[in-house]
Amino acid sequence: MKRLGSTFIIILIVLGIFTAPNVHAAIDAAPAKTSPPPGVQMAQTLSVLTGVAISPLLGVSAVGCYQYCKAKTDDERAKLPWFANPLFWVPAFLLVAACFLKDTFGVATAPGLKKPFDIAETIEHKISGLVATGAFVPIMINMIHEANSTGGQPSVSFSAMGFAAIQIPHWLYDVALTPIAMAAFFIVFLASNAINILILLSPFPAMDAVLKSFRTGVLASVVISSWMNPWIGLMWSVIIILISWLIAGWSFRLSHFGLVFLWDYFTLRKNRFVPHATENKLFLSRKINQVPARTYGKLSRADNGEHLFRYQPWLVFPARTLILPAGKYEAGRGIFYSEILHVKNDAAKTLLLLPPRYLGHEETIVRIYSFTGVRNVGLRAAWAWLKSLFGQTKSAAI
Fold first, then answer.
1. The pTM is what?
2. Residue 286 backbone class (left: φ over 0; alpha: ψ -120 to 50; beta: rest)
């Protein structure tokens, strides 16, 4: 986790260096207004960024609408950032309202009718979150900078906080604060996106409502605490960021798992997919030798018959190899996705999860890895059992 944090901060520093100059044009001409002390404004802005990270489309739209309504003249409104344009926040609010109606009435509908809309919302959430990370966060940070600048000079004044002698150059401010804010925003967004993936994978509408209510409650707590007192809002936002940091690995793996499954379903990839002859990409279904569940990697077979799982932590770090437990393996054929089962003492446990692109290719997987066979799993197994119960299975030739 520490290695990831260092690498991620370095990446965002580079992004901040290249992003910040483009952002200044959007705010340099903003009209001067009476601002609260720098410390208070920074606390409020951190609360805003935390809230937006939890629900990017709603948060960015709300901030844009507020800035548009706060501007007094057409000239002021013309100089506002892109997200304060009604052409953005009005359709965005309509989309948020549509999602609200979907969640309100979706509890009473069949899961099959609601899931396509959950898929659309998941795609929207991911796109809006990534856009907000690279475009919204730098603008908000630079707004603090402009509000704290003195006499139009390219420096940050901390005189209102008791540090009158400290003047931070403009470029150093951008390099130091912008990427840190982007990193904090991104890890909170990861945690929020993980909730979206859980909603997407859940087969129960009632559980969907519980998860959505939890996320809405956290968002409301950020807004209320900041409204009550900026420093309380700051402390609560820091707590949320720290919790998001602690579960960042889990959130990332779950988000990537959902993204791969969503892409395979959305593009009907199984219709044009052919398994690789030696190694294929899949997910661990459980923790094995400290390698966590939903780790993404490639399965191969060594010359001595061992099954090897090669993976890269966080998809970017040097590759590692996990030797899977010895024993018999079978491919499990499901309705929505297939599995690889480890069979030991006549008991089968799911060890690996195959993305939906492998549906219909179970026999090929068995041949590639020399598995012992294919069996039905999940709902497909339950359906086969029901058919046998009512005598619908085919009779064997005598």
1. 0.72
2. beta
